[in-house]
């Protein structure tokens, strides 16, 4: 949002400032972590029972004050201390070499992680883990696959509409003429340009085919998607242009001179509206997440986690399906905003359900496994959608819609955790 509001010129020339600004939330998070109390479970594992007791009392008192019952006393009837791994303590006093102790320590830690991971597939959480795996995978596959490539879908729509307005010029014969205006969305075929000057002008999506340029001058030229295919240049001078060699496709240059060739793209957002549009579509899609977060926060406890998860995924799949019928940019962007707003509600409820379905000793491991699976599904979705979006928009849209609806139906089969006490 900051990048968008600052405008194109500042964005292009001060990207380092933008990166620094984007890093500030991460730095703020690190600072905020220093004020958070340690996990009571960890303190119990390392034998610091008094500190764990004080943190639990602080949490209790804060919650009671929020409920309007500050007089309620914190009491604990029983504390179940987590089992400690004594093997690591024995390793510390081992008389073997240091690298042997390190090897045994690492092996023991990995073995403990593996045992905890396998417990996520044991009774009573095995069935929940399998269902959560399906929901996490389908939601990530559909959301990231479509969201990342959606601007490309818009771009293809724009390209098709832009190509339908292309102007064709054939068999032109122009001599002793000065071109000092912008040429855009044109194809020039079999032309002859003799003693012409192209001065301080822009080429935007212009193609010259089978044309002859003789004794011409190109000076102060910027170009975008401009190519010279199978053209012949005789005694032509290029001064301060961005016409690099790759823009001359199967062309012949005879006695031509190049001075001060500029490399890279010289077109700004003001000149190339499609580049600006990609950022603008992303901005609107991200902005649509805000009302989705607010709605999910207000309705999470009222309608239940399962209803929100399954309903959001099914509705987002349906909204995704209607993208297939999108014929205009405004309609597609409106459906994208609706899709993002519905999907973020599913993400929020899925996070809550996942935390509440696992017992404490398996919660972090299960959540970490599902997050790793989520990233793998996102990569797979990007690869598949990226290979299909250039062919047709129907297959990616139908695939995302089907996956989300199926995942939502699986999510409705999970147990309701709204009134369940955490294990």
Strand content: 5-15%
Order of helices and strands: HHHHHHHHEEEEEEEEEEEEEEHHHHHH
Number of strands: 14
- Level-1 CATH class name of the largest domain: Mainly Alpha
Poorly predicted regions: 1-12, 85-89
Tell me the number of helical segments per DSSP (H or I, 4 or more residues long): 14
Question: What does this protein structure show overall?
Answer:
Keywords: Cytoplasmic vesicle, Glycoprotein, Membrane, Neurotransmitter transport, Phosphoprotein, Synapse, Transmembrane, Transmembrane helix, Transport. There is one protein chain. The protein is an alpha/beta fold and 423 residues long. The protein has three domains: 83-120; 126-160 and 272-412, MFS general substrate transporter like domains (Growth Hormone, Chain: A, Up-down Bundle), CATH 1.20.1250; 168-270, Pectate Lyase C-like, CATH 2.160.20.80. It contains 14 helices and 14 strands. The protein has helices at 2-6, 8-13, 15-33, 40-45, 49-66, 87-92, 98-119, 126-163, 273-287, 289-303, 305-322, 329-357, 360-389, 394-411, and strands at 167-170, 173-175, 178-179, 183-189, 192-194, 197-209, 212-214, 217-224, 227-229, 232-234, 237-241, 248-249, 252-254, 257-259. Strands 1, 3, 4, 6, 8, 9, 11, 12 and 14 form a nine-stranded parallel β-sheet that branches. Helix 9 runs parallel beside helix 12 (329-357) and helix 12 (329-357) packs antiparallel against helix 13. The longest helix is centred in the middle third of the chain and has 38 residues, at 126-163. The relative contact order is 0.12.
């Amino acid at each position: 949002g900051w990048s968008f509001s600052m405008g194109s010129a500042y964005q292009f020339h001060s990207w380092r400032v933008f990166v620094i600004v984007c890093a500030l939330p991460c730095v703020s998070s690190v600072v905020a972590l220093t004020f958070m109390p340690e996990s009571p479970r960890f303190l119990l594992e390392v034998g610091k029972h008094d500190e764990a007791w004080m943190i639990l009392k602080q949490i209790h008192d804060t919650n009671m004050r929020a409920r309007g019952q500050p007089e309620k006393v914190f009491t604990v009837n029983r504390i179940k201390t987590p089992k400690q791994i004594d093997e690591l303590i024995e390793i510390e006093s081992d008389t073997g070499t240091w690298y042997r102790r390190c090897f045994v320590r690492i092996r023991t830690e990995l073995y403990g992680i593996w045992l905890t991971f396998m417990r996520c597939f044991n009774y009573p959480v095995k069935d929940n883990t399998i269902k959560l795996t399906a929901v996490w995978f389908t939601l990530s596959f559909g959301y990231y696959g479509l969201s990342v490539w959606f601007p490309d879908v818009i771009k293809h729509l724009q390209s098709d509409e832009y190509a339908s307005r292309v102007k064709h010029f054939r068999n032109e014969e122009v001599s002793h003429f000065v071109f000092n205006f912008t040429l855009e969305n044109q194809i020039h075929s079999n032309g002859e340009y003799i003693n012409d000057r192209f001065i301080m002008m822009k080429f935007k999506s212009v193609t010259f085919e089978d044309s002859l340029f003789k004794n011409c001058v190109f000076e102060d030229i910027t170009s975008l998607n401009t190519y010279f295919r199978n053209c012949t240049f005789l005694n032509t001078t290029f001064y301060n242009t961005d016409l690099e060699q790759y823009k001359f496709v199967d062309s012949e240059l005879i006695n031509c001179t190049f001075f001060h060739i500029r490399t890279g793209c010289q077109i700004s957002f003001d000149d190339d509206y499609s580049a600006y549009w990609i950022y603008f579509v992303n901005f609107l899609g991200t902005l649509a997440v805000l009302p989705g977060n607010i709605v999910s926060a207000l309705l999470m406890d009222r309608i239940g986690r399962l209803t929100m998860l399954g309903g959001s995924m099914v509705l987002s799949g349906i909204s995704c399906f209607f993208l297939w019928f999108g014929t205009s940019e405004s309609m597609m962007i409106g459906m994208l905003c609706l899709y993002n707003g519905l999907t973020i509600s599913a993400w929020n409820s899925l996070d809550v359900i996942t935390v509440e379905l696992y017992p404490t000793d398996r919660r972090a491991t299960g959540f970490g496994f599902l997050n790793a699976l989520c990233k793998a599904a996102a990569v797979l979705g990007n690869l598949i959608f990226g290979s299909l979006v250039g062919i047709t928009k129907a297959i990616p849209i139908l695939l995302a819609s089907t996956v989300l609806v199926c995942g939502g139906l699986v999510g409705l089969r999970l147990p309701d955790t709204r009134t369940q006490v955490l294990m």
